Amino acid sequence: MAKPNKETLLEWYRQIVLIRLFETRCDELYQDKKITGVYLHLYSGHEAVGVGALGALNPDDNVITAYRDHGIALARGMDPNAIMAEMMGKKTGVSGGKGGSMHLASREKYFWGGYAIVGGHLPLAAGIALESHYNDTGAVTLSFIGDGASNNGYFHEALNMSAIWDLPVIWVIENNLVGMGTRVEVASGQPELHKRAIAYGMKDMGRVDGQDVVAVHECVLEAAEYARKNGPVLIEAMTYRYKGHGVSDRTYDIRFQEELQEYMEHKDPIGILRKRLVDNYKNIEPQLEQIEKEAEKVVEDATEYALSSPVPTYEDLISNVYVEE
Ligand SMILES: Cc1ncc(C[n+]2csc(CCOP(=O)(O)OP(=O)(O)O)c2C)c(N)n1
Fold this sequence. Notes:
This protein has 14 helices and 7 strands. The protein is of the alpha/beta class. The protein has a single domain, classed as Thiamin diphosphate (ThDP)-binding fold, Pyr/PP domains (Rossmann fold). It binds thiamine diphosphate. The site of thiamine diphosphate has 12 residues, from loops. Thiamine diphosphate binds near residues 117, 118, 146, 148 and 180.
């Protein structure tokens, strides 16, 4: 398997830094009440999973996830301005301001959302893959799954169906060790979640280091090749959440202080990729700093765009709700 070249690594660096800065800004905007709602689920800490996995797909492969979806939308190449506008419920948002942070989606990018019901998107992933299989399009569907979501009924039904029908799905469990506040070993009889694959008779790709974008990319490339030809695979990407379940959980950093510090200092996706770039390419620091500066500007521009965008009108409220005859 060819190793990613310098340009690819720099592109991944750009995406990972952009996601981190975007999420940090969202957190601030929530505290300032510019983004409202009960929840806002940040992807900080998980970036290498989304970027590495989506980098292994074709543009017309399908992607679906749960509510921790901002980083996935950015990694799929959706417009940061329209994503930020959606956060603020503005008319210019990706879902016209009617979805909010948990319902980002893009038909053009084959990104089908953004779902709030834990595990509710998993049967949808199986359905999307059934369409590709039935019409022989050659596309795969990649579905992200929380470790907590792997314990609900949708997971069982969707994975089982994908196996009996040989559907081209890559199931990626993002194991960040907690579902809201419950540790995975307390919630799951078998805490090595990839082993669930055995129960469904599908290919078990094992655990991958979800903090290392290169490792994730390599694993998903292999998974995609397999799934396109043979049917579903299950991957468990080991990752870590840097913030509370949602931004309203402000004591998470204190409750998980030691573990969090360990990840931020030694297993940070930005730190790991930065070190790889610095170790392999001479005098690359100025380029990395330039990327960081540009990402800051993208986030600031997106914030300005969203703040100055109009809110939806009454007509917008009832559009795309009823079939027009
Ligand atoms: C069916 C359902 N049950 C409960 C909830 C409340 N809830 C939202 S997120 C969550 C935890 C899910 O954790 P996990 O799947 O590990 O994803 P993570 O938040 O770690 O990304 C729960 C219980 C919900 N939204 N839907």
